[in-house]
Amino acid sequence: NLARDTISCYLLTPMRIKRVMSRQGVSGPPPRFLVGNILEVASLVTRSTSRDMPSIDHDIVARLLPHYVLWSKIYGKMFIYWNGSEPRLCLTDTDMTKELLGKYSMVSGKSWFQQQGSKNFVGKGVLMANGQDWYHQRHIVAPTFLGDKLKSYTGYILESTEKMLQSLESAVESGKSEVEIGEYMTALTSDIITQTTFGSGCENGKKIFRLLTRLQRLTARSTRHLWFPGSRFFPSKYNRETKSLKKEVERLLTEIIQSRKDCVEIGRSSSWGNDLLGTLLNEMDNRASVTKPTPSSPDRFNLDLQLIMDECKTIVFTGHESTALLLTWTAMLLAAYPSWQDKIREEVKVVCNGGPPSIEHLPKLALLSMVINESLRLYPPVAILPRSAFEDIRLGDLDIPKGLALWIPVLAIHHSEQLWGKDANMFNPERFASRTYAPGRFIPFALGPRNCVGQSFAITEAKMILSMLISRFSFTISENYRHAPVTVLTIRPKHGVQIHLTPLKPKIPSP
Ligand code: HEM
Fold first, then answer.
1. Ligand 1 mean position to 451 CA, how many Å?
2. Running DSSP on this structure, what letter comes out for residue 142?
3. Which of 166, 173, 170, 169 has its CA nearest to residue 191?
4. Which has the closest alpha carbon to 373: 281, 299, 458, 481?
5. How many structural domains are present in the chain?
6. How far is the CA of 227 from the centre of ligand 1 (A)?
7. Could you tell me the distance, in angstroms and rounded to a whole number, from the CA of residue 235 to the centre of ligand 1?
8. How far apart are CA 110 and CA 105, in angstroms?
9. Residue 399: beta bridge partners?
10. What is the mean pLDDT of each run of 10 residues along the chain (511 residues)?
């Protein structure tokens, strides 16, 4: 059976898909046996990113997606290329992407390759689930980011940001003339997501975060060759370490969850907790209570333990990296365009009246929203949206056969002159002044029922952090900054973002 499945997965299905697509006039670069176009993509990207950019130029599609630029010129905007033996359809048409991400969210989703790649890391949490499983999990996770819940997390954001600002002030006071702001933003969003998920001062929560970061790196390395048939069965030097890290993360998570369960059961606590994990447990408990207890499953809670752990790992993973990148790129843009920095500082001063930002202030920070949107457009942290069709579907007038992978290059859509006009590669936040833009062309958080569930949290966090940073410092880009965006799933600055900081309120010397 294994041999038959392997032949079907790596040979017969891809060939059938290729036939169906070429009959409809969709073609692409010829694939090589087993490796497909992987080597070509790797060599094009290596070449295009081998040097830093000579100036802060936002025209970065040819640098980061050179294969998209090359093949769309030869084969048209819709072409197929091969990631090993997986055929991928590149989709940039906004009507088709809207249809796929909206109407077909239950019959498309994450591919086997993606799930295998992340199973030891985020497991089967909402990010990687499909169909009914995904639907069930999405309804458990979504309420943890709504209304009052979201508001209750802002205390963690304010507290952690204040700490970061103090450490920036100390750095400046100790004579450091420049800082790499990316490091600070990464540490800050890590701190915020750990506290928001597990509550403040939870030592096990901090340990879990550190272990997950190591696990993420290891998984990325050990799954690089997944496209090769049977590679997941090869003994790898990473496998043992991955397994023991995963076990340790789950042991720590079980400890935290068990102790909350004990507190509720013996009556020491009347709720699961006010942090994100508490809300998640509460949501699961409410749903489980409909069916529990039954003679065959006397304790529904234990049945869901793996799911709770997978959701926690997913949220910790998804909840910090992209936000750190959004903040880092926005800081770079504000440092490079000081007139926007001044405008936003003034806006924050008027709206927040010199105090810390609250959730009620945020909708009034219109200029800041425009800058954040422009930053998400030019440097979308998630540059590609991958999907796989689980059934034959029809997109526009194209038949998409079951098993075809779909690849939406968000970065290329965000930089398209056809969609954004001649100044598509320019920094111009004014384009977001009207707040109405055709759906489908601005998709940093994806679209439809399967969009980013943490979007409001991310935007709340970004607005609070940036408004606090901008009220305390003015900053300029350092002459040491080398503009070199690279993609490793997300778009990041290769050498970090170096800025010069000037405190705005000089400290009154103590008598
Ligand atoms: C600027 C910051 C962020 C960006 C640009 C971003 C972007 C995205 C995108 C594009 C997706 C869809 C991925 C796909 O389906 O392939 C996604 C999904 C997701 N994001 Fe975010 N995200 C951000 C912050 C966050 C935060 C702060 C959280 C949680 C605290 C979060 C949690 C999630 C989860 C759980 C999913 C999976 C949703 C589902 O499949 O139903 N994200 N995000």
1. 7
2. G
3. 166
4. 458
5. 1
6. 25
7. 32
8. 10
9. 394
10. 64 79 92 88 95 96 97 94 89 94 93 80 89 91 89 93 95 92 96 90 85 83 56 63 88 88 75 85 72 49 74 90 97 97 96 93 96 98 94 93 93 96 97 81 95 96 97 96 90 96 71 49
> Which residues are 136's β-sheet partners?
none
Alpha carbons 179 and 331: distance in angstroms, whole number: 12
Give distance in angstroms: CA of 409 to centre of ligand 1. 16
Say if ligand 1 is within 6 A of residue 446 CB: yes
Q: Whose CA is nearest to atom 18 of ligand 1?
A: 452
Helices 276-289 and 181-198: crossing angle in degrees, nearest 10, is 40
Q: How far is residue 488's CA from residue 490's CA, in Å, rounded to a whole number? A: 5
223 contacts: CB under 8 Å, gap ≥ 6: 116, 117, 118
C-alpha–C-alpha distance, residues 448 and 434, integer Å: 22
- The residues facing 406 across adjacent strands are 89, 387
Find the domain containing 16 and state its range.
1-511
Question: Which uninterrupted H or E stretch holds 346?
Answer: helix 338-352
Task: Tell me which residue has its CA closest to atom 11 in ligand 1.
Answer: 452
Residue owning the nearest CA to atom 9 of ligand 1: 445
Q: What's the whole-model pTM score?
A: 0.92
- Closest ligand 1 atom to 137 CA: 41
ipTM summary value? 0.99
Separation of CA 455 from chain center: 10
The CATH number of residue 3's host domain is: 1.10.630.10
Burial annotation 469-489 (CB, 10 A radius, 16+ → b, else e): bbbbbbbbbbeebbbbbbbee
In the three-class reduction of DSSP (H, G, I as helix; E, B as strand; rest coil), residue 283 is classed as: helix
Q: How far is the CA of 28 from the centre of ligand 1 (A)?
A: 30
SS3 343: helix
Ligand 1 pocket check for 317: Cβ under 6 Å: no
Task: Report how far residue 73's alpha carbon sits from residue 79's, in angstroms, rounded to the nearest whole number.
Answer: 10
d(CA 367, CA 354): 17
> Ligand 1 within 6 A of 205 CB?
no
Ligand 1 centroid to Cα of residue 265, in Å, is 34
Q: Is the CB of 471 under 6 A from ligand 1?
A: no
Partners of residue 400 on adjacent β-strands: 393
